[in-house]
Amino acid sequence: MSVSDIFEEFIKNSEDISQLFLMAQEFDPYIFKELEKGTLSKISTSKEVFLFKNSIMETIQDKKSKEIFKKLKVAIANHEYRDITYTYNKTTEHKNMKCIKLIFMDNNWYVVLVDETKKLLFRRLSFIDRVDYASKNAFQKKDIEPYLNFLKQAQNSMSLYGVKPKIATIKATPKIAIYFEKEMKKFLPSQKFQKKLDDGSIIFTLNYTQELEILPFIQKWLPDLIIVEPKELREAYAKKLKMALGDYDAVSSD
After folding, report:
1. Mind listing the pLDDT tens digit for each residue in 59-111?
2. Which of 158, 160, 161, 162 is nearest to 218 (CA)?
3. pLDDT number for residue 49
4. Which residues, in sequence order, are CB contacts of 58 under 8 Å at separation 6+?
5. Is position 37 within any domain?
6. What are the angstrom distances between the C-alpha of 168 and each of 149, 157, 193, 201, 230?
7. Nearest to 86, CA basis, from 75, 72, 74
8. What is the distance between the alpha carbons of residues 83 and 81, in angstroms, rounded to a whole number?
9. pLDDT by residue (tens digit) across 78-91?
10. Which residues pair with 250 in a beta bridge?
11. Are 15 and 90 in a shared domain?
12. Domain range for 65
């Protein structure tokens, strides 16, 4: 039995496939070279369920999480509805949700759902309390094709479906410009190199459907990524930074 065969069986039958990736990386990092040659393309049924955006780091360890993962995997593979109990600040009951994809990005597992108003939602697995059968049974795959196409381009869990993207122009200072050179790996799918300035700075653009889709990324590189335009995004970012500084000042004065 080849590595590809082992991987195929594991991803089909296990509710915690992250363990396979962790073991493979620990004992033989070159194992992924074989996997890249065709393993994922062989797993036709699993391709209907999974979309990997990052390396798998968040493990699904406790019994409850494994059971939730397993239930969602079945629902997605069979194009079925589920009722989801979700707690983030407050508990919400999501009824008759189309379960369309388990997706790993931003170093976390999410389930992608479509509600009865056709709104697409990202829900983090670690905040799901229950997964139950819904009053509706199954739906047709053609009903979710537009959402699946959107997910191929989604940058993170803050990407909004059905919202026309805006374009932000960003300047990387000479200190970090090397990471944004034209030939470097992109940090976000929409990232596009524009030009290199005489002082060594680099201008690039990002698409975004809401501020939260790109502001956390820009903030990670503080103070070396500067929003050139649009003005409203630059002002929103400046306001956020002022609020953060105010919080620090308040702590210092205590």
Report:
1. 566 888 889 999 999 999 999 999 999 999 999 999 999 999 999 888 789 99
2. 158
3. 74
4. 18, 104, 107, 108, 109, 126
5. yes
6. 23, 19, 12, 16, 6
7. 72
8. 7
9. 999 999 999 999 99
10. none
11. no
12. 48-156
Both 97 and 188 in one domain: the answer is: no
Instruction: State which H helix or E strand residue 10 sits in.
Output: helix 3-13
pLDDT reported for residue 114 = 98
Quick check: is 161 in a domain? no
Q: Judge if 58 and 41 occupy the same domain.
A: no
* Whether residue 144 sits in one domain with residue 130: yes
One domain, residues 137 and 207: no
| CA gap 13, 11 in Å, rounded | 6
- Please state the pTM of the whole predicted model: 0.74
Based on its alpha-carbon atoms, the radius of gyration of the chain, rounded to whole angstroms, reads 21
Domain count within the chain: 3
186-240 pLDDT, tens digit each: 999 999 999 999 999 999 999 999 999 999 999 999 999 999 999 999 999 999 9
What are the tens digits of pLDDT across the range 132-172? 999 999 999 999 999 999 999 899 999 999 999 999 999 99
Cα separation of 149 and 119, whole Å?
Answer: 15
Same domain, residue pair 77 and 110: yes
pLDDT band at 9 (very low <50, low <70, confident <90, very high): low
Report the sign of the C-alpha dihedral through residues 200, 220, 218, 151, in that order. Answer: positive
Please indicate, yes or no, whether residues 27 and 110 belong to a single structural domain of this protein.
no
| Per-residue model confidence (pLDDT) at position 14 | 61
Does 85 fall in a domain? yes
CA neighbor of 240 nearest in space, from 215, 221, 217: 215
Q: Which H or E run contains 104? A: strand 90-105
Examine the domain organization and report whether 30 and 109 are in the same domain. no
Could you tell me if residue 242 is inside a domain? yes
